[in-house]
Amino acid sequence: MMGAKITEPGSRTFEKPQHQVILSDFKIGETEVTQELWQAVMGNNPSIDKSDPQYPVEYVTWYDCQEFI
44: closest CA among 67, 14, 12, 15? Predict the structure, then answer.
């Protein structure tokens, strides 16, 4: 189910009404994309914490991810 019930306290108008969502088949990676992999593919590392190249990449937008895939 996606969204909020009409009577749910603290919910916002745009979250209502709650409704069923059916997804088509999709693929997903088993692990996060590491900074090292992102750097190899994209040529940059936008992450704030760069202390370990095996950490997941961070501070990427949906658009960045579309380019990555």
Answer: 67
Rounded to the nearest 5°, which phi and psi values hold at 34?
A: -75, 160
* Residue among 67, 26, 19, 16 at smallest CA distance from 6: 16
Using alpha carbons, select from 21, 47, 22 the residue that is nearest to residue 33.
Answer: 47
| pTM, rounded to two decimals | 0.64
58 neighbors 46 (Cβ within 8 angstroms): yes
Cα distance between residue 21 and residue 57, in whole Å: 29
* Cα separation, 62 vs 68, whole angstroms: 10
The CA distance from 20 to 32, in Å, is 28
> What's the pLDDT tens digit per position in 13-47?
999 999 999 999 999 989 999 999 999 999 999 99
